[in-house]
Amino acid sequence: AKLIVNASSGRPIPETLFGIFFEEINHAGAGGIWAELVSNRGFEAGGQNTPSNIAPWSIIGDQSSLTVSTDRSSCFERNKVALRMHVLCDSEGSNICPAGGVGIYNPGFWGMNIEQGKIYKVVLYVRSLGSINVSVSLTSSDGLQILATANIVDSDVSNWTKTEVLLEAKGTNPNSRLQLTTSRKGVIWFDQVSAMPLDTYKGHGFQKELIEMLEDIKPQFIRFPGGCFVEGEWLRNAFRWKESIGPWEERPGHFGDVWMYWTDDGLGYFEFLQLSEDLGARPIWVFNNGISHRDEVDTTTVSPFVQEALDGLEFARGASDSKWGSVRAAMGHPEPFDLKYVAVGNEDCWKKNYRGNYLKFYDAIKSAYPDIKIISNCDGSSHSLDHPADYYDFHIYTSASHLFSMTHQFDHTSRSGPKAFVSEYAVTGKDAGTGSLLAALAEAGFLIGLEKNSDIVEMASYAPLFVNDNDRRWNPDAIVFNSSMHYGTPSYWVQKFFRESSGATLLDAKLQTNSSSLVASAITWTNSVDGETYLKIKIVNVGNRHVSLKVSVDGLGLNSQLSGSTKTVLTSSNVMDENSFTDPNKVVPDLSLLENADKDMNIIIAPYSLTSLD
Ligand code: AHR
After folding, report:
1. GO annotations under biological process (predicted)?
2. Which of 141, 191, 241, 403 is the most exposed place for a label (fewest CB within 10 A)?
3. pTM of the model as a whole
């Protein structure tokens, strides 16, 4: 096979091409990138009615020493449920409390990862008719190993009182819990109990290691907060941005009925905008358009939803003295966020009211914010849209052979009209398992097709991005984690091969081969650190044989330097190989010096591989 690259001419690839899609699925946010360690911190997860289910909180002590219940006495209007703890034992007298006291504990999201030397901030609201002496501790899952502890001693908490303690861990345990215990008789109410590491990504509450995985792939945009999460199974359970802003204590939280779990919504609309800014990625806000999986608002009554979206835009972009902009400013961000893209719903094109509702949103947004780009759910790749849009969503989950063949999907798409946003793609099913090399290679082939068609495809993002291994609602995913460990699946590593593509120059690269298992592309890109321009050639081989590839690069400038060129290969001994917590680096890119780098060179391409020549 032969690959002829012309380095002297090319066309620009959009700056926006490769980004990420974050959805609150698989506990990706709550118990994932959001660093809050307490699950169900306001005791609301069982609903607003009492008695409420306080899980995963559990009781320390037995019926003779305490009773625990819930009531609606919280000081927070939107989340009235509070926990009431009636302590029957004492440190002296006839009913002595067990050693260590009685109380409640929260195991977080399948165990809290507490690390020696790190500092954790615990905030809680407390009320009692008498004086209190409560120990706040981080302990092992059986409570026996105390990793950090502090006492709250207060003689007057007759009104709800916010209390804050900093705990420095003396040991490490990835399966820890937070305990609130006492040996003093009386009634104590708790509400809004939070525990967070002090050290979070850019100090904004995100789990550092997981976000650094995103930083490494240089996403140009973040589509958020879902997916189906935005729609809800029923509208009453859809994500509503207004319920997710303001002080965290006052957020009601909600039960996401598509992925079937409660979120306290500490990770809300503001935090998504902040994360986009911190990653230097353009925010793409997907909002609910009055349509869920099972119910729809009629177009004649959709205007409150339209107003909700407009308010959301004002929150993100309005002046700091505007109604909603002032709420953003009060949250610590007086400057507007750079929100320029919105998607009207998710996968709703086929729903009865989609077009009607969409047009209401489109007209209102374009008239208030003419620069905002609007994304329709209707696929415009095979026929023209019957409504105005700047972009159309394209989603594809399929087999490896099909996705690989879709490298040509956009070759014949009309070049006029709205641009394509491939906002969800992945190989799924038995070809993918929980993240195989095969799936990743097919995705790489598809992405090479997107690069080549980037005159019409302006954005693309893999889905889903994260999975907490304890709650796999969807397979595969790009990044797998539990309380203390994480790794990238081969699909994650493919993303890294494409991180220089956005804003690069696509070169003319002709592949001469009779094999249908090979695809290739070539780009030049400018490194902002050293200002130099680099050539990058990517080759995907989904065949089971080595390929001897002659690579000729024409049109290299006189000052071109070939020494120091590298070859990076993603492959493994078995195409179904996956990474795991026990073997996180089984399928990862392998970097070596390209010894024979020349403008004419022979490269041996491994079977089942993605190769990059840089
Ligand atoms: O990525 C998982 C789900 O797939 C998304 O929520 C939805 O948009 C699609 O059906």
Report:
1. L-arabinose metabolic process
2. 141
3. 0.98
